[in-house]
Amino acid sequence: MKNKLIVPVLLLILLSVSLTSCEIIGGIFKAGVGVGVFIVVAIIAVIALVIGRAGRK
């Protein structure tokens, strides 16, 4: 159990030492924007699909 925990902790320490806090936060926000855009596009596609199927009846 301890061996499985050591690798993520060491990776986190390595990232925190090698990157500044601004770079880390910038990366998080870039990923968040990408995920947000994907979710919005998916929601619009689902709405268009529902409207398209409702129009066929």
What level of helicity do the residues show?
over 70%
Strand content: under 5%
Mean pLDDT: 80
Number of contiguous helices: 2
Which regions are unreliable across 5 or more consecutive residues at pLDDT < 50?
Answer: none
Total domain modules: 1
Please describe the structure with a list of short key phrases separated by commas or semicolons.
57 residues; mainly alpha; 93% helix; elongated
What does this molecule look like?
The protein is mainly α. The protein has one domain. Helices cover 93% and strands 0% of the residues.
Walk me through the topology:
Blueprint: H1 2-18, H2 21-56
Care to give the gist of this entry?
By secondary structure, this protein is mostly helical. The protein contains 2 helices and no strands.
